Amino acid sequence: MTTALIYLVIMLLVAAVVFLLAAVVFGRGEELAPLAPGSSPTRLPAEDITGEDVGAVRFQLVLRGYKMSEVDWVLSRLGSEIDGLRERVAQLEAELAEHRLADRREASR
Fold first, then answer.
1. Are the CB atoms for 42 and 57 separated by under 8 Å?
2. In sequence order, what are the residues at sequence separation of 6 or more whose Cβ sits closer than 8 angstroms to the Cβ of residue 67?
3. Which segments within the chain are labelled E, that is strand?
4. What gap in Å lies between CA 89 and CA 50, rounded to an integer?
5. Residues in CB range of 74: below 8 A, 6 or more apart
6. What is the dihedral of CA 13, 16, 20, 26, to 10 degrees?
7. How far from 7 is each of 13, 15, 20, CA to CA, in Å?
8. What are the start-end ranges of the H helices in 27-67?
9. Residues 6 or more apart whose Cβ sits within 8 Å of residue 43
10. What distance in Å separates the CA atoms of residue 89 and residue 82, rounded to the nearest whole number?
């Protein structure tokens, strides 16, 4: 019985030392003021998203990681931006092909 009590006390002391050491090493960090309900720190421009914009995206941390709705929103915006850019590239390539064809017709005359 005494041995079990000694082991319990030693385990509690070791746990307390580990906790205090972790608190000193990692600290509590700087705490930010809580956001208003429904708001988000996630920002992207309305149009013309650049790689720098994507690199600057930050998501709100919640209990199990990032806030899923914010990640979904950013991915949706990036997907639509990429789709728009691809559509524009295809349109410009088609125009370029038309101009080349017209130039060839004029050159062959």
1. yes
2. 40, 59, 60, 61
3. 61-62, 65-66
4. 16
5. 42, 44, 57, 59
6. 130
7. 10, 12, 20
8. 51-55
9. 56, 57
10. 10
The two tokens of residue 69 are: 């709705």
SS3 11: helix
**Mean confidence (pLDDT) of the chain:** 82
Per the structure block, which two tokens stand in for 99?
A: 């101009």
Instruction: Say if residue 77's pLDDT is above 80.
Output: yes
Query: For residue 47, what are its two tokens?
Result: 């149009």
Q: Number of helices and strands (H, E) in the chain? A: 3, 2
pLDDT tens digits, residue range 21-74?
887 777 665 565 666 776 677 777 777 777 777 777 777 777 777 777 888 888
